[in-house]
Amino acid sequence: MQKSDGATHRGIYLLDAWYMAAWSETVDAALKPITLLDTPVVLFRTSDGEVRALLDECPHRFAPLSSGKLDGDTVVCGYHGLRFAGSGECVDPRFTEINRTRACVRSFPVIERDAMIWIWMGDADRVDPAGIPDFSFFSDPGRSSFFGYTHVKANYQLETDNLMDLSHLDYVHVGTIGAGATLQGKHSVVQEGRTVHSCWTCNGIECPPQLVPFLQPGDAKVDHWMDMRWDAPALLRLDTGATLAGKPRQDGFFSLQAHFATPETEHTTHYFWGLSVPGPANAMHDVVNAAVRQAFEEEDRPMIESVQQRMGTNEFWAKQPLILAEDAGAIRARRLLDQLIQAECRATE
């Protein structure tokens, strides 16, 4: 059951798109509140395991439905006991068929795939399941996966900037995952439709410290790569690894990562990240996971939040930022997203 809530935020966000709402493992039969694109949402699972998403607001007195309870597959408002099905339809016996439609709650299309829950925040008639990028490596039984979440007090595009410009590794992450690789590497940016690739190739360098336990290169040089793929609005996939210099990539070690920056508000972000490595989980994988977690939470987050604090409520382009060559991927993604948002606005005029 679809009902417009009036607060569409069109022009601020790309609405007709898929956003990461949660890792599958974090959503169960309990009511899970989360704010997405300035919109309160409640997630839950029905008795058959299907995920549902409703506007977290009762149409009666506007209480959050998440403060109520689940009665079987029915959401019961904690204020006056109104009852809603997972479709958003009001199933409370106090309403007749005549006035029941006005009592419905907006529902959001959701898809669960590869350990992720995706939500469509725009027009339900425009839902396109094929628009979800491929992250099927999380379902590969031959790989081990780790999932994380970081709340960032900054606009989601600042998170994208950080990921699309990996030259920051050699400044922000010195001593952890930064090893001077980009200072010796080559950078390329390619756009394919609504996808932007920002790739670093760093050949004949010393092995990045976090990869030494896996490659054990000794004094030998390695070829290191970091291939980032961005899809609108902020869905990123990173293929990164190293191999002995001159050897094919498949002979080395690589990890596949997912990075999703979902707006909570204009100035706060849900940053979901996941890491997949070959083979069963072991102690060395735990070391990699810990290093990545430290990099994201203790190094990236403070820097990104400090940028937002300096910017305040000023818009990015209004600040007239200096542009470096290394910014090419981040700038391409920003401009493409701006174009998509503007096109969406024109289509609804």
Q: If you had to describe this structure to a student in words, what would you say it looks like?
A:
38% of the residues are buried. The radius of gyration is 22 Å and the shape is globular. It has two domains: 114 residues, Rieske [2Fe-2S] iron-sulphur domain (Rieske Iron-sulfur Protein), CATH 2.102.10; 208 residues, Naphthalene 1,2-dioxygenase Alpha Subunit, Chain A, domain 1 (Alpha-Beta Complex). 20% of the residues lie in helices and 32% in strands. The strands form four sheets. It has a seven-stranded antiparallel β-sheet with strand order 10-16-15-14-13-12-11. Strand 13 and strand 14 form a beta hairpin. The protein contains six helices and 16 strands. By secondary structure, it is an alpha+beta fold.
Labels describing this entry:
alpha+beta, Rieske Iron-sulfur Protein, Naphthalene 1,2-dioxygenase Alpha Subunit, Chain A, domain 1, three-stranded antiparallel sheet, globular, disordered N terminus
